[in-house]
Amino acid sequence: MPRHWNYHFPTPEDSKSTSVPYTKQQLDEFFKHHDKNGDKLLSKEELKKAFDDLQSRNPGFRAWRAMGKADTNGDQHISQQEMEALLNYAVGIKYQIKA
């Protein structure tokens, strides 16, 4: 194998750092925690911060996309009634909990 390929061969230490995807329930609590003003709505800025905390590579895009998927009434907020669509979107991305 050429030296410039940078392949990482698994080691015993790698098996210790496992990660598992967030569950829908965990993400529900996570997003509720990001409702900073307590109005039970998630704004685009609150979503952007949440996706940033999930270590998204592009939290602004994820917030915009989440709004498009979940904000069915077009008020630029995710309500409790729209939360299921947000959770389905976020679960589909498969963010990982670093264990």
From TrEMBL:
Keyword Calcium among record annotations: yes
Stretches for region Disordered: 1-21
Domain of life, source organism: Eukaryota
GO cellular component terms, A-Z: endoplasmic reticulum
Ranges of residues in domain EF-hand: 22-57
UniProt keyword Calcium present: yes
Ranges annotated as spanning the membrane: none
Keywords: Calcium
One MF term in the entry's GO annotations: calcium ion binding
Protein name: EF-hand domain-containing protein
